[in-house]
Design a protein that fits this description.
Elements (H helix, E strand, L loop, with lengths): L1 H14 L20 E3 L1 H9 L3 H15 L4 E7 L3 E6 L1 H18 L10 E5 L11 H19 L3 E8 L4 H15 L11 H8 L8 H19 L6 E4 H6 L2 H11 L3 E4 L2 E4 L10 E4 L8 H14 L2 E7 L4 H12 L7 E6 L3 E4 L2 E3 L11 H8 L1 H8 L9 E3 H6 L6 H23 L27 H22 L4 H20 L9 H25 L8
Parallel strand pairs: 4-5, 4-10, 5-6, 10-11, 12-14
Antiparallel strand pairs: 1-3, 2-3, 7-8, 8-9, 12-13
Helix pairs in contact: 1-3, 2-3, 4-17, 4-19, 5-14, 6-7, 6-8, 11-12, 13-14, 16-18, 16-19, 17-18, 17-19, 18-19
The structure holds one RNA strand of 75 nucleotides.
Length: about 550
RNA sequence: GCCCUCGUAGCUCAGGGGAUAGAGCGACGGCCUCCGGAGCCGUGUGCACAGGUUCGAAUCCUGUCGAGGGCGCCA
C-alpha cells in the first residue's frame, strides 16, 4: 500500500518536473488528518519554487484524478501536508490476509535475507544463580532473537561462560572456605546460596572449580528454562585456552609487534586502534586478563557468523571501545560487531530501593522474581522500555496491580478471543445450521464472509492496528527496540477489549452474517495477539 | 577530571524532525437482563534550563544544571 502511494506521488511529482529522494509516508497523530500523510510538498517547496501549500494542492488534484485503489480521497491540510484517506475495504482486507497467512506467516518479513547473526546475551559468570541484574538482558536478548528471526535473519544465540578467570577461582575458594569454616578470601563470595552449595561439597569432588562451574550452569539453565529462554550454544572460555588458541593469538600479536612486554606484563597496543590507552593481555603473575580470551572468542564468532550482536549491562560500556579496538588490532572488521548496552534497572519494594550487592551477597535471584510475579510478568516488565532508559521496577505494583502489569491485560485479550471462538464453536455444534466454524480451527474469512460489514469504529481501529504489525516489527528489528512490539501489543489488546465491549459477536440479536464477519475478525485478532506475545517471548494462554 | 546513558503528567514510562505531545497507575465520576468486569467510558496537569540549526524542535547541535553507570595487571 505504502509503496503504491509512494509510486503514485513520485509519478505525480514527475509531471511537475520534480524529483523527490525519500518520500516520507506516515500515520498522522490525528485520524482527522487522514490515514496516511506525506510531507513532500513541504520538503520540495524550495526546489519547486512555489509555496508548499500550492504544491500540495496540485499534487492532491493529480492524485485524486488517478483513482488509486483503496484510496477514498486525497486532501491538503495544515502548512502543506498531503493526506490520504483510505477506504474501509483496505482495512477489512487485513482480516483475510491474517487468516490466510496465519500465526506462522503473517508479519513474517524477509529483509534479513538469511544473514547469519550471532546474538550473545546474559553471559553471567558461573559463580551463582542468575540475579535481577541479569533479567533485563535476558528478556531483551530473547525478544530480539525472536524479532530478528521473524525478519528473516539466521539467528543463533550464545551464552559465554567465563570459566577461566579470577572470579570462578575466587568463588571456588569461597565455597571451600565456607565448607571448612575458614575465613573467606578477600572479595570472596557471600550469600545464602554459597552456604547452601558449600554443604553439598564432599570428598568426591576433586576439581572444585569445575564442580562450582557446573553447579552454577545447571542452576542458571534451570532458571532460564522457567523463563522459556534457550540458547543454541553455551561457549566455555576454557575451550579457547585449552585448545591453545589463546596462546597462538598471543604469539601472533607479539610477532606482529601489536603486543609488547612491560613491567613483567604483556600489553596490547590498542591505543593505536582507538582506545585511550594500551591494555594488559597477560598479567605479571602470568594470568590472562578477561580481554585476551575474549578477543579470541569474538574472532571465533566472526568466523561463524556475518554479524555479531552482544548485549551488555551499562556497567561494561567502557569495555566497548577496548574490545572493538582489540578486534581492529587483529584485523577484524568491527562494523560487523554491534554492542548494545542496557541501562541498570532499579528495583523498588515496599517503597524503598532494593540494593543489590554481589560483594555482600545481597541479591534478588531471578528465581525469586519469578516466584514473586510470575515468569511472563518478569519478562514483560523488563521489555516495556528502551534499553537506554534507567527504569525503575516496583515489585509490589507488579505483583498486585493488573494494569501496571500489562502482560495480563494483553493475555486476557487473547483469552477472550479464544473464549468467543469456543463459544461460537459450541453454538455451531448445537446445530444452528449456519455453523460458526470450528472454533479455533474456524476457516472464517473464506469465501462468502462479508468483511464489508466490519465498519464499526471499534472494528476499524482493530484492523488498522493489525495492518501496522509488519511496520512495527520492522522498526523493532532495525532499531533493536523490542519494546515497540510490547507497546503495539498493549494497543491491540486495548482495541480488542473495546471491540468486545461494543460489538457483540454471537447472540440472537446479531445477524448471522455479522456474526460470521466478526468471528473472522476475532480469529484474526487472536492470531495477531499470539504473534506479538510470541515475539515478546511470553505465553499465549487460552484460559486464565 | 574524562567517558556513556538519561531528564516528558503526582508516579512508572512511550513518542526521537512535522499538524492540538500520549498510555497505564493513582484520584474523581459513570457502565453488568452482556460472548469471562483481569473489562469499557469520561474528567486533569507536563517536554530540566539557555542558546543555535530548520519552513517546522520534546526530538538534531552546543553549553549549564541534575540523576544513574563507568574510568583495574576485576569480570
Amino acid at each position: 500500500m505504502q509503496d503504491t502511494l509512494r509510486q503514485a506521488i513520485s509519478d505525480a511529482l514527475a509531471r511537475f518536473g520534480l524529483v523527490a529522494g525519500e518520500i516520507a509516508l506516515e500515520q498522522p497523530a490525528r485520524r482527522a488528518h487522514g490515514d496516511l500523510s506525506s510531507n513532500v510538498a513541504l520538503t520540495l517547496a524550495k526546489q519547486a519554487q512555489q509555496p508548499p501549500r500550492q504544491l500540495a494542492e496540485s499534487l492532491a488534484q493529480q492524485l485524486n484524478s488517478a483513482e488509486l485503489s483503496h484510496v477514498e480521497s486525497v486532501e491538503v491540510a495544515g502548512p502543506g501536508f498531503v493526506n490520504f484517506r483510505l477506504s474501509d475495504s483496505w482495512w477489512q482486507s487485513v482480516v483475510e490476509d491474517v487468516l490466510t497467512l496465519g500465526v506462522d506467516n503473517y508479519a513474517r518479513l524477509d529483509f534479513g535475507q538469511g544473514i547469519k547473526v550471532n546474538l550473545e546475551f546474559i553471559s553471567a559468570n558461573p559463580t551463582g544463580p542468575l540475579h535481577a541484574g541479569h533479567a533485563r538482558g535476558a528478556a531483551f536478548g530473547d525478544a530480539l532473537a525472536q524479532i530478528l528471526k521473524r525478519c528473516g535473519y539466521d539467528v543463533s544465540t550464545e551464552f559465554y561462560v567465563n570459566d577461566q578467570g579470577r572470579q570462578l577461582k575466587l568463588f571456588a575458594e569461597s565455597l571451600r572456605a565456607v565448607k571448612d569454616g575458614t575465613p573467606l578470601p578477600e572479595d570472596g563470595y557471600r550469600g545464602d546460596y554459597v552456604v547452601e552449595w558449600a554443604q553439598e561439597l564432599n570428598d568426591e569432588v576433586d576439581d572444585l572449580r569445575r564442580w562450582a562451574r557446573d553447579k552454577s550452569l545447571a542452576d542458571q539453565q534451570q532458571t532460564l528454562s522457567k523463563l522459556s529462554i534457550s540458547f543454541d550454544r553455551w561457549f566455555n572460555e576454557s575451550e579457547l585456552v585449552e585448545t591453545g588458541r589463546v596462546h597462538a593469538l598471543l604469539e601472533e600479536l607479539l610477532a606482529q609487534d601489536k603486543a609488547y612486554e612491560k613491567d613483567g606484563a604483556t600489553w596490547l597496543r590498542v591505543s593505536h586502534y582507538g582506545d585511550s590507552q594500551d591494555r594488559v593481555l597477560v598479567k605479571s603473575n602470568g594470568d590472562l586478563t578477561y580481554l585476551t580470551p575474549d578477543i579470541a572468542y569474538h574472532a571465533d564468532k566472526l568466523s561463524r557468523a556475518d554479524q555479531l550482536i552482544d548485549i551488555w549491562g551499562a556497567d561494561h560500556h567502557d569495555y566497548v571501545t577496548r574490545l572493538k579496538s582489540a578486534l581492529a588490532a587483529i584485523g577484524e572488521d568491527t562494523s560487523r560487531v554491534e554492542i548494545i548496552t542496557c541501562q541498570i534497572v532499579k528495583l523498588m519494594r515496599a517503597g524503598t530501593e532494593v540494593k543489590l550487592s554481589k560483594r555482600t551477597g545481597d541479591l534478588i535471584s531471578i528465581d525469586e522474581l519469578i516466584e514473586d510475579i510470575s515468569s511472563d510478568a518478569t519478562k514483560f516488565a523488563y521489555l516495556q522500555q528502551t534499553p537506554d532508559s534507567h527504569l525503575t521496577i516496583d515489585l509490589d505494583v507488579l505483583r498486585e496491580s493488573s494494569m501496571e502489569n500489562p502482560v495480563y491485560y494483553v493475555q486476557y485479550a487473547h483469552v477472550r478471543a479464544c473464549a468467543i471462538l469456543r463459544q461460537a464453536a459450541q453454538l455451531g455444534a448445537a446445530g444452528s445450521g449456519a455453523g460458526a466454524g470450528g472454533g479455533t480451527e474456524t476457516e472464517a474469512g473464506g469465501s462468502g464472509t462479508r468483511l464489508e460489514l466490519l465498519n464499526h469504529e471499534r472494528e476499524l481501529e482493530l484492523m488498522r492496528l493489525m495492518r501496522n504489525l509488519p511496520d512495527e516489527l520492522q522498526t523493532a528489528c532495525t532499531a533493536r527496540t523490542p519494546h515497540r512490539i510490547v507497546a503495539w501489543l498493549k494497543e491491540l489488546a486495548s482495541a480488542f477489549h473495546g471491540f468486545y465491549h461494543d460489538c457483540r459477536v454471537t447472540g440472537n440479536d446479531v445477524p448471522e452474517e455479522l456474526t460470521q464477519a466478526r468471528l473472522s475478525l476475532v480469529k484474526a485478532a487472536q492470531i495477531c495477539l499470539a504473534i506479538g506475545l510470541h515475539l515478546a517471548g511470553v505465553s499465549t494462554p487460552e484460559r486464565m
